[in-house]
Sequence to fold (511 residues):
Amino acid sequence: MESLKEIVLFVNKQKTARIEVIGHPSNYSGKMKQLFDGIVEGKYKTDEETMLDLYGNKNSLDSYKKLKYRLQNRLINTVFFIDLNKPSFNDSQRAFYICQKHVAAIDILLGRGARKVSMELAERTLRQTLKFEFTDLSLHLLKKLSRHFGVIEKNKKKYSYYSSMTQKYLEIYNAETLAEQFYTQLNFNANKKSLPQDSIAMEATDYSEQLQKYINNVDSNRFLMMAYLVFSFRYEIAHDYKNIIRICDEALAQFEKKDNNRPISLFIFLSRKITYLIQIKNYEEAEVNIIKALKLVPEGKSNWLNTHERYMRMCIHNKDYQKAFNNFVEVTGDRGFQLTYKNIIETWKIYEAYFNFFIKIDKIELDEKETKFKKKFRVSKFLNDVPIYSSDKRGLNIPILIIQLLFLLQQKKYGQVIDKAEALNAYCYRYLKKDDTFRSNCFIKMLLVLPKGNFNRIAVERKSKSLVEKLKSVPLEVARQSAEIEIVPYEDLWEIVLNMLDNKFYQHKSV
Fold:
């Protein structure tokens, strides 16, 4: 009862009736409600247009800033009242947010002198932070409990326990911090174009050797995650795919033997393993791991969608276009996909275009339910509406430009093919000069041979022979490029291109 009295008096003194949160309509109205609802609905894009809509002029900057500040503070308060009983939270996530709230409450209570209830809450929360391996929270609580029972209550048994646990978790925390720093440094250096790959590879090897010393003594989720990401990075930089897969298997074995393994830890390394199994064309094992990975993530969420995308890409690389298409139809018909679609629309629209192309060249058959898929897609709209991205950091322009040309080729619109080829040539000259776009550079130059050979199959094959050999000299499994770029392996796509040609010569008449 003493602890309960203490917290009741504390809360009463703080006048909780004045707590401002978003959620109940009475807690926000007027311009604040307009601003909140406008952001949720996607109505407001810039501060200038928002201020104009809310105040009717551009001279209300001070009022607008105060409104934003009040709304932000109210939203921060609301964070502490998020409903954790929703099925989207797994046990570990739910425990993390509850423990974070408890730790914040403990610090506030201690700061206002409510020591008894705060230390009871600390002991109760510590059991959860230890169970779920939240090392930083555990260390934070252990230090407070150690001091309390050593200085305030002078309880020898509890002080000895919490003191020794503090030392143990300090070592774990230091190992986790070191592993995280190493992983962050490697990623930072990998993005610095001025640093040679050999230098980063040596750094990755050095970091791996340092972390290897902790593997037998530290097995926290956080340490294992960061350490094995560093081990994996060491081989990624060298494009040693078999060793990356081996490292992923080691990581998975470590996580699977833990009593309280986290689905996300297993998913991360399964996902990496899948990527490189596809890269070395071990499609059978990749499919087994894809099925495992899909069971670990909520349906309709981004990880679920990304895994399905890899599955489609794998089927395409395996020339199983029908299976890839069936998967696409199933996923895009899912309610979860429809909710998330806006965020990934670029990539999936490109897949949609490739599937429609496969339908047109009879690589995919449609059943009665799927005929509406074909009706919804308009080639002319795709050719005109799909943007060419000016920044193009993900390399999406390449598959877009290629599929646009293939549609024109399939329709035998050779004049437009030539125009598109000229655009491809300019794009190739401007952007595709690096090692990580070597294969795309080769393939685009192969497409540029089409008008040079007057769309005659024999002439095109003859003129493109040296480029085909260059492409084959750097197989997809060893190419240094983003997986999103080559939706269909260029060797397979070139075979399709040749099959669309005949033995006639088509001369383009300039107007």
